[in-house]
Amino acid sequence: MTRLHYFLGRGRAETTRWMLAVSQIAFENVPVNTPEALATLRATGKLPFDQMPLLEIDGLNLSQSTAMIRYLARRGDYYGETDADALWCDMIAGAVADFAETAMQAAFQPTKESALATLRGRFEKFGPRFEARLAENNSGFCVGTRLTFADVVLAEALTGYLDWAPDILADTPLLAALHDRVLNAPGIARYLHSEQRYPMAGNDYVIDVARVLQRALPTHLPDPNRFVPV
Ligand SMILES: N[C@@H](CCC(=O)N[C@@H](CS)C(=O)NCC(=O)O)C(=O)O
């Protein structure tokens, strides 16, 4: 069985979940929701850098979310047709990682207003560039003429922005169409409606992460050092 070990939330495991979903690979979310569970996982020796997520698949222990999505892209033929396609997939996925980080950090911001301002600023930088790439490629996909992992991670990141700013794709119709296309891919649609899909991160998730990692909370939350060992 394919197993994905992570907190009870989307975070850095979510792109891997979308790639598993599009590849129609059944998987189990293994929740790591206590410091003890993390210590036990670390003691298995399966985390080469002591970090989550961990993906157990094909008898391998995969670390680093960017390596996971590329492994799944090669495995499922979502890396384009040519070396040039693969290069474009990597360039776009790299830009998407920079863009997605802002959505991932939004729940950790002190107010909804500050999170939204940061998200809108980041979208103004990257949104038009992704739109231009889709216009240039002119196939409805970011690379070549069929779905690649670049499309999947871009749609996942856009979902993170849309959760906060539902109007954000109003002026980028090609991006909006790509987002729809990926969300309607059979494996993705099924996953998004399944119990495996975690809700958008809120304070509960922020607190859970700090508790599991025994780290300080963002300073706007009460008693920010409550999980820091004394
Ligand atoms: N670049 C890594 C980042 C992994 C990472 O920072 N994981 C965090 C949880 S989201 C973690 O395990 N932190 C504990 C640590 O670094 O010791 C990836 O994308 O997988």
Quick take:
With 230 residues, this protein is α+β, with helices and mostly antiparallel strands. It has helices at 14-22, 35-43, 65-76, 83-105, 112-137, 149-164, 173-183, 186-192, 203-213; strands at residues 2-6, 27-31, 54-57, 60-63. The mean pLDDT is 98.
Write the layout of secondary structure elements.
Layout: E1 2-6, H1 14-22, E2 27-31, H2 35-43, E3 54-57, E4 60-63, H3 65-76, H4 83-105, H5 112-137, H6 149-164, H7 173-183, H8 186-192, H9 203-213
Parallel strand pairs: 1-2
Antiparallel strand pairs: 1-3, 3-4
The structure holds glutathione (GSH).
Glutathione binds next to helix 3.
Model description:
The chain is an alpha+beta fold and 230 residues long. It folds into two domains: 2-75 and 190-213, Glutaredoxin (3-Layer(aba) Sandwich); 79-185, Up-down Bundle (Glutathione S-transferase Yfyf (Class Pi), Chain A, domain 2). Helix content is 54%, strand content 8%. It contains nine helices and four strands. The protein has helices at residues 14-22, 35-43, 65-76, 83-105, 112-137, 149-164, 173-183, 186-192, 203-213, and strands at residues 2-6, 27-31, 54-57, 60-63. A four-stranded mixed beta sheet has the order 2-1-3-4, with helices on one face. Strand 3 and strand 4 (60-63) form a beta hairpin. Helix 1 packs across helix 8 and helix 4 runs parallel beside helix 6. The longest helix has 26 residues, at 112-137. It is globular. The N and C termini lie far apart (39 Å). The structure holds glutathione (GSH). Glutathione (GSH) binds next to helix 3.
